[in-house]
Amino acid sequence: MIRRTANGGADAAIRSAIEAVQSDAVVVLDADLSYRAPIVGALLEALTGEEAEVVVASAYAPGGEVRNVPRKRAVLSRWANRFLAYAARDRVRTLTCIVRAYRTDALRRLLAYRPDDDATHMLLLDALRLGMRVREIPARLEWAPERRSRMSLGAVLRRTSSVMSAALRERPSLALAIPGLVPGVLPLAVALCLLVHATPQQTGIVASATFAVQTASLVVFGYHSGNFAFRTFLTRRTASRSVVRENT
Asked: For the segment 194-218, what is each residue's pLDDT rounded down to a tens digit?
């Protein structure tokens, strides 16, 4: 058993455990069994059967599901993962879940690639960036009643902020969509002009520029959203066809 002298969070604890592993494969699992124990066998089977280097348990992949998770937490998690998935070019649907199987040699490469970052989602982004074989299997995420009572919205928001920052670093063009999503920017810009006693011509220029930026930003957001929705449709359609073929 490994004991840490300081509480550095779940990601730091996982890194400490991984560094002590001696086996050929590593499985990381939530201690509260939000993902039931049989997922371990499924992860290892996919790791060997599909010759993968990383296998992720995914509640958001086709066939996955979420149960008994508070609505606010579920919504934040789903949208954070959608944002990350798009940044990762839709190669993986769930990037924040710690329940995974790794080949130990691949995992050590990942830890050496970014030694100062413990974030679980960064490990997966790095694996994709390094061209590792990453697979995803559908899984069921189900919270126990006692975990619902311990939920801290502040911690969830901090985690979500970290995830969004990672997505923007991975795909900076997503930042262009942010101005269009902020309400009240145009009235605020006009109000600031009036506050500093700008001339009508200057106010008009500022208002026009603000409107143009927000409109362009919404166009970018629409493009990204439409592209992601189309990819999601194709993924689900391919998955449903595979199920039909297996049943026939």
From this structure: 888 889 898 889 889 988 887 887 7
Kindly report the three-state secondary structure assignment for every residue of 161-210.
HHHHHHHHHHCHHHHHHCHHHCCCHHHHHHHHHHHCCCCHHHHHHHHHHH
Spatial neighbors of 248 by CB under 8 A, at least 6 apart, are none
Q: Amino acid letter at 241?
A: R
At residue 150, the 3 state secondary structure works out as helix
Distance CA 106, CA 100 (A): 13
Question: And the tokens for 155?
Answer: 């911690």
DSSP H or E stretch at residue 58: strand 54-58
For the entire predicted model, the pTM comes to: 0.69
Each residue of 132-161: b (16+ CB within 10 Å) or e? bebbbbbbebbbeeebeeeeeeeebeebbe
